[in-house]
């Protein structure tokens, strides 16, 4: 049960971190007036017009979230920190792939989304791995 709770805590921290970094990105690259993020068609239209920096901010948010989530999961389960961190990264990868299937993304962003979560979560877990 503690393993599941550690991963869930990591996922909550990851989600919050992604939200905060994406919010910062929206201040740097504000979405168009009247933008509705709950409308998939609207999201698809925005993805085709968004500047590179705005999309890069999303990937940075994913990396920061996975790193923070991996660190939390590792901290809560010091007997197997890397395994818990990577589990957070794998769950986030699954969520990222679902997002890719729902909303069309540029190819480079799809590739980055598919590969960013696990290494970033591993890095977060590695920060707190006291075994070496």
Helix content: over 70%
Q: How many helices in DSSP terms?
A: 5
Percent of residues in beta strands? under 5%
Task: Tell me, rounded to a whole number, the average pLDDT.
Answer: 92
Q: Structural class, from secondary structure content?
A: mainly alpha
Biggest β-sheet strands, sense, barrel: none
Order of helices and strands: HHHHH
Put the structure in a nutshell.
With 132 residues, this protein is mainly alpha-helical. The chain has helices at 2-28, 40-49, 52-76, 81-102, 107-127. The chain has one domain (2-127).
Structural account:
80% of the residues lie in helices and 0% in strands. The chain has five helices and no strands. With 132 residues, it is mainly α. The longest helix is centred in the first third of the chain and has 27 residues. The protein has one domain. Helix 1 packs across helix 4, helix 3 packs parallel to helix 5 and helix 4 packs antiparallel against helix 5.
């Amino acid at each position: 049960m503690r393993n599941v709770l550690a991963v869930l805590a990591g996922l909550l921290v990851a989600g919050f971190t992604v939200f905060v970094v994406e919010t910062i990105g929206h201040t740097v690259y504000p979405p168009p007036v009247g933008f509705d993020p709950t409308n998939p068609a609207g999201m698809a239209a925005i993805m085709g017009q968004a500047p590179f920096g705005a999309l890069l901010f999303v990937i940075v948010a994913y990396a920061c979230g996975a790193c923070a989530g991996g660190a939390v999961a590792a901290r809560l389960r010091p007997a197997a920190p890397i395994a818990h961190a990577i589990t957070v990264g794998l769950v986030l990868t699954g969520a990222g792939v679902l997002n890719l299937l729902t909303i069309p993304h540029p190819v480079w962003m799809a590739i980055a989304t598919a590969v960013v979560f696990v290494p970033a979560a591993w890095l977060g877990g590695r920060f707190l791995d006291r075994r070496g």
